[in-house]
Specification:
It contains four helices and three strands. Helix content is 59%, strand content 14%. The model has no long low-confidence stretch (mean pLDDT 79). α2 packs antiparallel against α3. β1 and β2 form a beta hairpin. The longest helix is centred in the first third of the chain and has 45 residues. The chain has 153 residues and is an alpha+beta fold.
Length: 153
């Protein structure tokens, strides 16, 4: 008879009450983790796309007939349309100031949430490559190195 009383205490339903709180909390935490992973993935993806577009504008061919800014904008639009993750496709902005190209994306990652909750901005800047200036600096550094060797010996 004592075993029957202990069994009644054990089957009071406390497990059901605990599960009613723990299971929804675990599901909510899992969904939030997945949303955070998607958010970070999109942020990295757009940062990489911005850098890639800036490099495409910086390394365009001279005889192509397009300015570096146009080439970067075309590449940025194409990369933005290739994104397959949820969210709106942000419109890229390109700024070509002569010294370099800056490409930036901004937008909301999950439009179903309140505005600003999952918004992000990805920005990349690439300095303009000037091969003649770079080669002259290398030659000057080489001459300075030779002068330093001569002064030491």
């Amino acid at each position: 008879m004592g075993d029957f009383i202990n069994m009644k205490k054990w089957k009071k339903g406390s497990f059901t009450v605990e599960a009613a709180f723990i299971v929804p909390a675990a599901v909510l935490m899992t969904v939030l983790l997945i949303l955070c992973i998607f958010y970070v993935h999109n942020q990295v993806w757009y940062k990489t796309a911005a850098l890639e577009a800036a490099l495409a504008g910086n390394s365009r061919m001279e005889g192509s007939g397009k300015s570096p800014g146009e080439t970067a904008l075309e590449s940025a639009k194409k990369r933005a349309e290739q994104q397959v993750m949820p969210g709106e496709i942000p419109y890229p902005q390109v700024n070509d100031d002569g010294a370099g190209i800056r490409v930036s994306y901004s937008g909301s990652m999950f439009p179903s949430f309140p505005e600003g909750l999952f918004s992000c901005t990805a920005d990349a800047r690439v300095e303009r490559v000037r091969p003649v200036k770079f080669l002259r600096m290398l030659q000057m550094a080489e001459k300075l190195g030779q002068a330093a060797e001569y002064a030491v010996s």
